[in-house]
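Box 3.1 A note on notation
Throughout this textbook, protein chains are presented in two layers. The first layer is the amino acid sequence; the second is a token string describing backbone geometry. Keep the layers aligned when reading.
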Amino acid sequence: MNVYQRIKERRLTLGMSQQSLADSMGYKTRGAINKIEMGLRDINQTKIEAFATALKTTPAYLMGWDEESLDSKFNTVDVFRIPIVGHVSAGGGCLAQEDIEGYDIYSKEDINPSEKYISLRVIGDSMQPKICENDRVLVHVQSSIDSGRYAVVIIDSEDGVVKKVEYTSDSITLISENPYYPPRIFKGAEVQRIKVIGLVTKVVRDL
């Protein structure tokens, strides 16, 4: 039995519908779950951990590494649900909405449980190829970062963007990976237009 069959079997054991599982996983329709259960859509390690959480079991069980149902041991698995908060623009000028559209699952290797994190879905192509459209970025919420790091910033209190941020004594430069988008330089009083939301610590891309 493969991981896709185990997901289906576990869902049926719990009496969950495909739509209910889709809602728990942050998918918009049950069709995504149907494709996964049929083996027509690949899932990465992060998604396997998310399925394990939603299905009240462990990644080991879904992967076939342990034949027993692990409900009683689930709470010993060090995984953490990080909310996917709206969208963040990477070139499209989209407002960063504070609405939760689902959750990503991370291990303690990726986060410090005592710190605050959010996950944001990227739209636009300004950060390609490093960060592509529909990728999700894990963001450690903090008000400042070191120069040369990637961050989520708000411009003029409305536009949330993922950019490489560089500082000088009197300026902030927001740099895109895609050469089609020129750097945006904010000097003097203009630096007040920029608010750092947090440091990008990881990029998640569904396969």
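The domain at 3-77 is CATH 1.10.260.40 (434 Repressor (Amino-terminal Domain)). The helical segments are 3-13, 18-25, 30-37, 45-54, 59-63.
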